[in-house]
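Hi again,

Forgot to attach this to my earlier email, sorry! This is the prediction with manganese (II) ion bound. I've pasted everything inline since the attachment limit keeps bouncing my files.
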Amino acid sequence: MIRQYELVENVKAYDIRADEEALNRAYVFAMKAHGNQTRASGDPYFSHPLEVAGILTKYKLDSTSIITALLHDTIEDTETTSQDITDAFGDEICQLVDGVTKLTQLEMQTNQSDQAENFRKLVLAMSEDIRVLLVKLADRLHNMRTIDFISKPAKRRRIALETMEIYAPLAERVGMHEMKNELEDLSFSVLNPEARNSIISRLEFLKAEGKDNIDEIVFELTKTLAESRLRGHVEGREKTPYSIWRKMQKKNVSFEQISDVIAFRVLVETVEDCYRAMGIIHQAYRVVPGRIKDYISTPKPNGYRAIHTGIIGPGRLRIEIQIRTREMHEIAEHGVAAHWQYKEGTDATDGRQFRWMRELLEILDQAANPDDFLEHTKLEMYPDQVFCFTPKGDVIVLPAGSTPVDFAYAVHSEVGDHCVGAKINRQSIPLRTELSNGDQVEIITSEAQTPSPTWENFVATGKARAHIRRFIRSRERDEYMSLGQSILERAFHQEDYELSDKGLNEVLVVFDAETIDDLYAEVGAGHVSGLEVVEAVYPETKEKKKRSLLSLPGVAGQFGRKKKVEEKKVPIKGLTPGMALHYAGCCHALPGDRIVGIVTKGRGITIHTIDCDTLVDFSDTPERWIDVAWDLEETEDRYVGRMSMVVENTPGSLGELSMVIGKNDGNISNLKFTNRSEDFFDMLIDIEVRDLKHLSNIIAALRASKAIKSVERTKG
Ligand code: MN
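Structure tokens for the complex follow:
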């Protein structure tokens, strides 16, 4: 265990501006917080955060990161709260510790490898500050170094698998190769100890055979360079068992066929020296064709730069050599951490956090693969995605701002359509709640539930929106259909015909409808009137109607009008006998209205309401005006009253409308939509009523309905 003063000295050695006082306070704070907790190894728990901090000093991270490392388990494992950390160390450190805590609470909830990529994105998305990720990686590294103390094999395996699939690739992604190699090899020893042991014993066998003569080769290469007066440092090391094993898997070859179990590195001062070193080595040894890779002129996506080459080296052994400058080497091994270290202090006016972000971008900027680049920058800089879990642990990726309804539709359309409620992290929440990274979402469904139009106001995904709209459209069509059917029944009945499928089938083509339901929907939506359909099925109706309007009421009978009408006397007093009578379409006079008759030559008398605007046209011809009044005794006649109304555009509102009218003994004879917006329909409805009082009653009943915004009698 490192001692307090050692840690502080280590930090001060590379960062003279380090906040020594805060480092000391964090040390004491964490030690006290963890008290006499112990690790599985039996060590005091505090040894763990201390080791994590120690790992980060090797990467020469700033004192803020080191303090975060010391405190990283206090919120998760002790009584300490975020507020305590803010009070003692300020907001920045509190946010970093909170970030690491969130990552710690996030465990891979599934063993499915196809989820790994999403999980890695989730970790990146949650590491709003790259230092959160660096502390988490160091935390994981120390836990892996001590994994043998965990007694349960299943738990060891789960942690190792998570390390292999999530954290090692993340370390690689931010360019920390040394970290990545160690994480992988430690996981390998848990996941496949047999394979690892056999590779290690092969390596030892090679050594025993004298074929693993690293020192000799290093000596030869150094001498070769020196003879050409190039100063360079040569080093050689065995590759990790895991990287050898992976190569065997990838190339499907045996251990014997692997040429480069030893990697040699030549470190020089400048880029120019890199190319010179390559030339010198190529002159002295035979080059293996096809092995030269120049990552200096074309760096790897994560910013890696070096020259790789393969030669038949000293002792006729095939070896691989990497040639780099020292700076390239630092960045290759320490990635984003090294990058920070090199740039630190160049621009003191910048906010530290922004510098971190920018530098990560700089690394990523060199990305050859544009997809890679976008993916990274988005996660770090534009958090426009949110990663959530199903109860089974599958990751669902959604756009930021998504709600449980989006989640439900992303799982399955059926789940979306029947969603009634949701739980986030086992708490019931309103469906409009926005999801956060790492939320576990459980959708509660009911067969009886159907999508609600209000969902459209808060969904973020196209899939959810499309399903909700499709459902509303089909629901709307159902309503139009039943409304249309009742309008047609009424229209046929009025003309003394029966509504029959046979009749309708014959005229479908006239209305460009494919099925009878289509025709009903057309009528219900007000595109086609009931009378138009009647006239199409029975063309004689049109002729009949025309005549009946123009003829004497008593004569109507000979054209086959209703018997009722035939026998009835005209319900209006004051008419000249023998004059044709009809009601003006401009005002739809009803019994109960005050009325006036206007004589038109050859057309008879037209009845208007006394307040009808049209009457202005006749003000110069008072001789045409006739005083008339209703003469009603138990009449069963129906008169058409017109209403204009504004109805909510929600499923069920049209159904409610026709139900209210029907209940009050009215018949819808016609309707027309004058305006349709997202929220409301404006419509004109003609209904058949007995008189003004009847119409007023219906209007009153409609006004009581929630779906109907306003309703007025209208004339014209
Ligand atoms: Mn920890």
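Residues 342-358, 363-382, 547-567 have pLDDT under 50 and may be disordered. The pocket of manganese (II) ion is lined by residues 48, 72-73, 139 (CB under 6 Å).

That should be everything now.

G.
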